[in-house]
Specification:
The chain is α/β, with parallel strands linked by helices. It has a single domain, classed as Rossmann fold. 40% of the residues lie in helices and 18% in strands. Helix 7 links the parallel strand 6 and strand 7. The chain is globular. The structure holds guanosine-5'-diphosphate and magnesium ion (MG). Guanosine-5'-diphosphate binds next to helix 2.
Amino acid sequence: MEIKVLKDILSANDQIAERNRALLLAKKVTVLNVMSSPGSGKTSLILETIRALKGRVRIAVIEGDIASTIDAQKVGQEKVPVVQINTGGECHLEAGQVGRALDSLPLDQTDLVLIENVGNLVCPGEFRLGEDKKVVILSVPEGDDKVHKYPLLFTMADAVVITKIDLLPYTRFDVPAFLQAIGGMNPQARVFQVSCTSGEGLGEWVEWVTSVIRK
Ligand SMILES: Nc1nc2c(ncn2[C@@H]2O[C@H](COP(=O)(O)OP(=O)(O)O)[C@@H](O)[C@H]2O)c(=O)[nH]1
Ligand SMILES: [Mg+2]
């Protein structure tokens, strides 16, 4: 019985995700759904991406958090349109919330929407939002084994970003082991290694973002 209810929720979500997708295609807007556990560096990567593409790509941001407007305020300081969604306890964003957020963004003047999903390495993977690409972040302090412990998101990812590589000398994060694991479970995924503190690897990441924007 419970399984049937879950199926109904998912299919209802998928229908709304399709509607979001149709709107975004009509408006020629590309969407990246950025997912990771709390604190791995989603907001930092979004801020660096905005700064790198300023004047070249018109970016808007949807911030998903259980509570607060802290991340939306940080993004707003970069002078880009931003909407904060507070889920009030839910561990993921749903397509309906994103649809309402899209309605309040200036899509005719937008090339790229970056969605920061709620910090969680499991639940966001089960809810399509209408996005073009799924980006999954894992930060060095979290450990390379998380790819095995939370395979769903890593299997779905179009891009996997290892962040905080400036901390590699202080941890036992095994980059070759991580790359091998990703290569085994999702060989299509592009993998990036970046530090938002030193700027290392950001160029390659930004180049990929630019390459996936709908022309
Ligand atoms: N050393 C280091 N710290 C980082 C890096 N990226 C983010 N952080 C820090 O990690 C913490 C969480 O980052 P944040 O972007 O808010 O993560 P979010 O919760 O996933 O949005 C903050 O204190 C950031 O300054 C990085 O590349 N290197
Ligand atoms: Mg954040």
